[in-house]
Design a protein that fits this description.
The chain is mostly helical and 152 residues long. The protein has helices at 2-16, 19-39, 50-73, 77-91, 100-114, 122-133, 139-151.
């Protein structure tokens, strides 16, 4: 389970006195705990699923990549390096990401499964992709590919 893997990595980082890794792993655990608490009213008393954790990790990476862009524009190489280190730690918990060719194949298959015919069906396609490929795909890039494929 992903949650256990993160906790084990935290214990190992604590033993190695790796302050940077400990910091980001604690941040990940805190974010998961926040999501767990937010999910309780919906009846999820045992916490969020691995798919939800993968989405959380992807959004954390996206936030850090946006920060990296801003720091690069501001000439803050020290902060760029710190954020990139955090991205690397977070990404270590994600499954291997699909390349564009694999994404195109997956999108074609999902379009065929859902019977999507126009851009109006984009929501159905995105929902199916998120269910089948959580953590394996950059959904921002997938969105652009879906639009391109449905417009054709």
């Amino acid at each position: 389970m992903l949650r256990e893997s993160i906790k084990n990595q935290l214990v190992a980082a604590l033993k190695e006195h790796d302050e940077a890794k400990v910091s980001i792993l604690r941040l990940i655990n805190a974010a998961i705990k926040d999501k767990d608490i937010a999910a309780r009213p919906a009846g999820k008393t045992d916490g969020i699923s691995d798919a939800d954790i993968l989405q959380l990790l992807q959004s954390m990476i996206k936030q850090r990549k946006e920060s990296i862009e801003m720091y690069e524009k501001g000439g803050r190489a020290d902060l760029v390096a710190k954020e990139q280190g955090e991205v690397n730690v977070i990404a270590s918990f994600l499954p291997k990401q699909m390349d564009e060719a694999a994404m195109r194949e997956a999108i074609k298959a999902v379009i065929a499964q859902t019977g999507a015919a126009s851009i109006k069906d984009m929501g159905k396609v995105m929902g199916a992709l998120r269910a089948q490929y959580a953590g394996q795909m950059d959904f921002g890039q997938a969105s652009a590919l879906i639009k391109e494929m449905l417009a054709a």
